[in-house]
Amino acid sequence: MRTSYSAHQRERIADASPALKMTAGRVRFVLLMLGMLFLALIGRAIYLQVVQQDFLQGQGEARFRRAMTLEANRGVITDRNGEPLAISSPVQTIWASPADMEPVPPAKLRDLGKLLDISPEELATKLSDHKKEFVYIKRQISPELADKVMALGIPGIAKQQEYRRFYPAGEIISHIIGFTGVDGKGQEGVELAREKMLAGKDGRRVVIKDRRGHIIEDVAAIEPPKDGQTLALAVDHRIQYLAYREIKAAVEENKAKAGSVVVLDAKSGELLALANYPSFNPNNRVGTTPEMLRNRAVIDLFEPGSTMKPLSISLALEHGKATVNTVLDTHSYMIGPATIRDVSAQPSLNILGIIQKSSNVGTSKLALLSSPQDFWTYYDALGFGRPPNTGFPGEAAGRLRDWKNWRPIEQATMSFGYGVSVSLLQMARAYTIFTNDGVMLPISLYKTNNPMPGKRVLSEKTAHEMHDLLVANSEPGGGAVGGRIIGYSIGGKSGTARKLEGRTYVANKHRALFIGFAPGKNPKLIVAVMIDEPTAGKYYGGAISAPVFSQVAGGALRVLNVQPDEPSNNSLLPDSTPVPADF
Questions:
Q1: Could you tell me which of 297, 561, 541, 528 has the C-alpha nearest to residue 435?
Q2: Each residue of 151-180: b (16+ CB within 10 Å) or e?
Q3: Element (H, E) at 355
Q4: Is the model's pLDDT at 302 over the cut of 70?
Q5: How far apart are CA 473 and CA 115, in angstroms?
Q6: What angle is formed at CA 52 by the lines to CA 51 and CA 54, rounded to 5 degrees?
Q7: Residue positions annotated with a catalytic role
Q8: CA–CA gap between residue 382 and residue 562 (Å, rounded)
Q9: Which domains does the chain have, with CATH numbers?
Q10: For residue range 253-274, what is the model confidence (pLDDT) as tens digits?
Q11: What is the CA 26 to chain-centroid distance, rounded?
Q12: 175: Cβ contacts below 8 Å, ≥ 6 apart
């Protein structure tokens, strides 16, 4: 049925059509825009939830999730008797997360700075970079002080436990132990050499924290730290104290530049003491200079002078070029343009006389009985020119030139300690051939119940002969009388070496040395002493280094309860004007 409209109605419908059409267009446009917005929201959601998921999750975790390091306790270092030489104590470190912090009120900033002894300006600078999520405020403070800091209630300020290294013996043993840095890592000495063993392994704890730094929950299993191992040194802290006390006194009394002492177990090669002066306090290194840090006994090289003579004379005895009864003409003689002479000239001397009078002429003539290659091979076997492999960081190898490049004079001068460079530690080790039947022992920094086997350098016969000659050198008329110990026999050799500056040996700068063993009849200890540039008047090794040997070795024998092997009245004072027989 068709609907009929009047003319008036048809007119009204015609007038409404454009409006209806416009309204429908607007609806479609709005729906389209809404659809596009909806699609944009869906796209954004997909982008954030899928494409940017890792980034956003990381940003959220960076603000609230924290991976905390659980610091391992560094291992204790002890002496051979269990006496602690390096220990770690718990301390606190204050840190902040500027990215999570609101501006700190000035009053709070002043209070924090007053507690930590930091200016408000410096604190403001540390906290100003809001891109940083971790910054140290003050490290290694006492737990009591850390509690006061946290009591201020500053959001974003937190504390964590660390360990600080302490050295009970201080400067007495600092060159052996070394020290750690503020991060707890070894920097020098045994602390550096055995870093991996001592450091252990840090643990890890992942937590959620609020903006005030409070832990809300753990979000992963805690990985506990593994503490470092205890390390027992061969050092005896009682002997170490004696060595340091005596070398310090000798350096100061003789107004010397420096001094060193090495004490070895004569039968095992264990390092019982090593002291240098000047020294430093590892607990407080403010004002410490590089010279104070030098472990001179290990890294300083020098020409050993007459302390080398027993070693070079041994080669002639070993190869049958001479016997203990051999007598040599000891008048001065020429090698090319150079003259070999003695300070205390004698027309002739037997082997004991050559040692007692410290004859350059006699020693060099014995050395020249061997070929350059044999002489070099012997010095090489004694470890000269090679690191001693003790484990000390930076240990020196010394200098021993290839025999093929020697000039005629060099073998002669090397026999009495010039033209070859060694460390005091190397010289002390070389003397183990006289206390251990011709076998040179490796030096051990660490306590051991099973000493490493040594290397045979001399036959037992030659070693015993030289041992007896060195003991005889401490009797009246010998050059080692200044090292005698009340109640004990000794064996030893003094030395005085001029120092080389540029290419010239200067007359007023010396090194005074003494190396010996005690008791002489059954050696337990080897003690080597070096005093660098004494300027108080005396400079001969027999005059200023031998007494240090006497005090250190005598005290050490009593500490170790070694029974005296001579009467208590065996002391022999050296002549007040000793013959200069050290050169």
A1: 528
A2: eeebbbbbbeebbbbebebbbbbbbbbbbb
A3: helix 351-356
A4: yes
A5: 66
A6: 110
A7: 306
A8: 29
A9: 66-232 (3.90.1310.10), 237-280+294-559 (3.40.710.10)
A10: 999 999 999 999 999 999 999 9
A11: 85
A12: 189, 274, 275, 276, 279, 294, 295, 296, 297, 298
